[in-house]
Amino acid sequence: MNIQFIFTSLLALALSGPGGADWIKPQETEVSGTEGESVKLLCNYGTSSRGTFDLYWFRQYPNQALEFILYRGWGYTGKGDAEFAIGKFYSDSSADTTNLYFRKLEFADTARYHCALRKPR
Q1: Domain range list for the chain
Q2: How far apart are the first and last CA of the chain?
Q3: What is the pLDDT of residue 85?
Q4: CATH class of 2-118
Q5: Cα–Cα distance measured from residue 52 to residue 104, given in angstroms and rounded to the nearest whole number
Q6: Tell me, what DSSP letter sits at residue 106?
Q7: For residues 70 and 85, what is the distance between their CA atoms, to the nearest angstrom?
Q8: CB neighbourhood size of 46 (10 A)
Q9: In what order do the strands lie in the sheet with 67-74?
Q10: CA angle 14, 65, 93 (to 5 degrees)
Q11: Cβ–Cβ < 8 Å for 43, 28
């Protein structure tokens, strides 16, 4: 069975300093996959700071609130996973991308997925 995703970025952050801004956006707005296969979602991002920050992934079913999947720290070892996400999803990042992987796609994974960038305080 082919599964269609609608994929959007959760937010683009406001200016963080003189002449710079933080932003995050999906590389593709729709991704599809086949049940049982693995799938990768990709967000590109940029930040004007060189410090640490967190890269988040959420999903949203129609007419429901956002649901946290996981986050990974960049520049430090912070991380966190929702209980349902352990073993189902994983993430990796580079200096300008963050990826969310589905280990084994299921029809129930059909949802809107969001990436977000946040600077820890």
Answers
A1: 2-118
A2: 43
A3: 95
A4: mainly beta
A5: 31
A6: -
A7: 7
A8: 13
A9: 30-34, 2-9, 112-118, 53-60, 67-74, 79-81
A10: 55
A11: no
pLDDT tens per residue, range 67-102? 999 999 888 888 999 999 999 999 999 888 999 999
Question: pTM for this structure?
Answer: 0.82
The span from the CA of 52 to the CA of 45, in Å, is 14
Structure tokens at 72: 């990974």
CA distance 69 to 120: 18
| DSSP single-letter state for residue 84 | G
Q: Are 52 and 74 in contact (CB under 8 A)?
A: yes
Q: Average the pLDDT over 56-64 and give the result.
A: 92
Question: How crowded is residue 2: how many other Cβ atoms within 10 Å of its Cβ?
Answer: 8
21: number of Cβ within 10 Å: 13
